[in-house]
Amino acid sequence: MMTDELRMHESTGQGMGLIDPATTLIENNLSGRILVIEDRVESVAWFASALTLTHDVSSADTFEEALVRVKGGDYDLIVVSLGMRDFDGLRLCSQLRSLPEGRHVPILVVVSDGDRRKLTQALEMGVNDYLTRPVDKNELVARVRTQLRKKRYADRLRHNVQLSLEMAITDQLTGLHNRRYMSRHLDTLLDNARKNERPLAFVIMDIDYFKQVNDTYGHDIGDEVLKEFAGRIAANTRGIDLACRYGGEEFVVAMPDTDMTSAYNIAERLRQSIETTPIKISRAPGQLNITISIGIAKAEGEGDDADQLLHRADQALYRAKRTGRNKVVADAA
User: Fold this and answer.
1) Which of 28, 50, 134, 177 has a Cα-to-Cα distance from 277 of 20 to 30 A?
2) Rg (CA), the chain
3) Looking at residue 185, which CATH number applies to its domain?
């Protein structure tokens, strides 16, 4: 069911053009890192001899060592003997499934022939497959290969779904969040600011005369300017700030726990950086001098919403442009 759900999400991502179908193809190399958990030395040696030719095999013979290895081992498959003498293999399987590092790793249990009770309990707690003693080498190799193939496929689906989610909220040119994400997340930031009685500043920036850059040098150079500008925004903001490309040559930054004075100083520092440091481009003349105009507004407490905050910041930006550009203007409210 989980794989079907991932496959459905991936199909949606492909339909939206977010994922290349070719990235779902499974690699032919099915070698993997395998952990054998068994307290009988001769059994460990047998598993190693059967699997080492293709796989990287390691072992653990105590409960604690098994947990430590899984937490730091990045394994592709775990083989657990349910007939160990010193600890309960079923309890270990349960513990492995509760670990973040073991949640998606397939578990192959080995049970004695006829021990249906342990096998049933193991399957009920989510192990992926089983072998009965005496274990046939060819069957072991086949079941290991099957589990590795399933894991690689599930990992690829999970990666593609995560990639599609990231692409859905990220501006592909600049790497900043896009307008859709900003619109949804700004309400959350406002709610948190009101709840914690903390300031929230909102900055909107626009590249002056950007149309002339596109008309003179082409849209590819315009894209280079946008990417460089976005990089400087990212370099001048904190991890808690929300930086987004709002559209075209407009960018916004929401700054939690930031009053108007601090926001103004940050915006002014960025404006000066843009004005004094030319942006490098890939064609003659090799660099461009640009300036930016910036408007700032602050959250006004109860009753204030994202649209009102955006409007006030946009009005401040308009005043910056109307009064000569290349300046920072704070909302007078």
Assistant:
1) 177
2) 29
3) 3.30.70.270
Of 180-184, 248-252, 273-277, 279-283, least confident by mean pLDDT is 180-184
pLDDT at residue 138 tops 70: yes
Residues 118 and 245 in one domain: no
Q: Is 0.85 topped by the overall pTM?
A: no
- What's the length of the chain? 333
pLDDT single digits (tens) 284-333: 999 999 999 999 999 987 778 889 999 999 999 999 999 999 999 998 75
In DSSP terms, 200 is beta-bridged to 256
Q: Side chain identity at 55, as an amino acid letter?
A: H
**What is residue 17's predicted lDDT score, i.e. its pLDDT?**
47
- Does 249 qualify as catalytic in the annotation? yes
Tell me whether strands 77-81 and 107-112 are parallel, antiparallel or unpaired: parallel
Quote the CA–CA distance of 38 and 50 in Å, as a whole number.
15
Number of domains composing the chain: 2
Q: Which of 101, 249, 250, 302 is catalytic?
A: 249
- Of 282, 251, 287, 288, the C-alpha closest to 267 is 251
- State the Cα–Cα distance between residues 274 and 223, nearest whole angstrom: 16
pLDDT beyond 60 at 21: no
